[in-house]
Amino acid sequence: MKLSGLLHRSKPALPGLSGVARVDRRTDGLLRRVKAGEIAVLDQVDLDRATADALVAAQVAAVVNASPSISGRFPNLGPEVLVSAGITLVDAIGPDAMLAIKDGSRIRLHDGVVYAGELELATGVQQDADSVADALVEAKSGLTHQLEAFAANTIEFMRRERSMLLDGDGVPEVHAELAGRQVLVVAAGYDHAAELARLKRYIREYRPVLVGVGAGADALMTAGHRPDLIVGDPAEVSIEALTCGADVVVPAFADGHAPGLHRVQDLGAGAVTFPSSANPEDLALLLAAHHGAALVVTVGLSATMAEFLDRGRSGSNASTFLTRLQLGGALVDSRAIAALYRSRMSVGVVLLLLGAVLVAAAAALLFSDAGDAVMAWVSQMWAVLAGRIEGWFG
Fold first, then answer.
1. What is the DSSP string of 168-215?
2. CB under 8 Å to 352, separation ≥6 — which residues?
């Protein structure tokens, strides 16, 4: 046997899934950096659907969570989204693993164990559809405790910020004219891009004031719209959105300190602060309410109990119930608006109309000597019909 053959004989491939690790304790930062085919390593108790949707959109190969992705407090939706998309989920590897796994290094996942080559770095639980389903069934028992905590936090918020809720004390003035206008508030929530696309005709017809909440401002820009107002942490918003000419409202603590305000100021853009413990979505709604908006349409905001609890931040959600009470019937979910604008004209009817026009044109050409006039009439009818079709399907 030749020695050169032994030297060049390759080692057998190690089992499991391999990829570059992208490690970050801040989920928002991780979502901005992770690329297709990489393994996202995060630390998030009760993985929510918005994060899972973003990871699926980023086409990650796998997700490794230092914390339990389903703690049992409530049936959160993120793990189900990941496993349904065929993304490997390794759960509860422990906080120390966030230090053991180096950002940018190549790791391997096999049977719930994280390796660097053949070196074992951490051990967790590899989830599948059955294990996630079982965990969600058990988590439903935690709903009572979550609702009780929510009620207590809501009462505390009402006591602390009663004057702002009832009288608008502390609500900042903005240049965007909201009084008597329809307002579209967009947040980067579940299915927000698709919902925004369905509102194309509504936006074109009513030209509502466009409000982006955090990354919702970039969602508006991506859809071809310029936001009139941006509410949220500037760190979550692109430079293009912050400098597009929109009013910027930065959430602030009770003492006036507003994290992220310096980013707007460094860009030379103006901004005002909104001191409140309410979350940015509710601040946007309160701005619309206290400035006299006629109707507020929401995209990407929590609309059902499952979506609300899936956010997993009972403290920051304390303002949600009271904010929606403040708006009352002026608050409408985008899915209702999209349903009203859904085309009721079938393709068959459109084809029938086209056929009728063509038959009429052919008959006119056969039995009329005024060919030029007929062709002009046909062109005019075609233009009218094309306009109708565009109106039907937006």
1. -TTPPP-SS--TT-EEEEEES-TTHHHHHHHTHHHHHHH-PEEEEETT
2. none
Q: Which residues contact 18 (CB under 8 A, 6 or more apart)?
A: 106, 107, 108, 109
pLDDT in tens, 292-332: 999 999 998 876 666 666 665 544 567 777 888 888 889 99
Q: Choose the most confident range, by mean pLDDT, from 148-157, 184-193, 370-379.
A: 184-193
Q: Parallel, antiparallel, or unpaired: how do β-strands 17-23 and 39-42 relate?
A: parallel
Amino acid identity, position 143: L
Task: Kindly tell me the burial class for residue 125, based on how many C-beta atoms sit within 10 Å of its own C-beta (0-12, 13-18, 19 or more).
Answer: middle
Residue with tokens 């579209």: 184
- How far apart CA 230 and CA 217 sit, in angstroms, is 6
Q: For residue 241, which of 212, 198, 203 has the smallest C-alpha distance?
A: 212
Q: Which residue has the higher pLDDT, 188 or 288?
A: 288
pLDDT mean over 177-193:
90
Please check whether residue 178 is in contact with residue 288, taking contact to mean a CB–CB distance below 8 angstroms.
Answer: yes
Sequence-separated (6 or more) residues with CB below 8 Å from residue 216: 185, 186, 187, 188, 192, 232, 299, 300
Residue 136 pLDDT level (bands cut at 50, 70, 90): confident
Confidence (pLDDT) at 121: 95
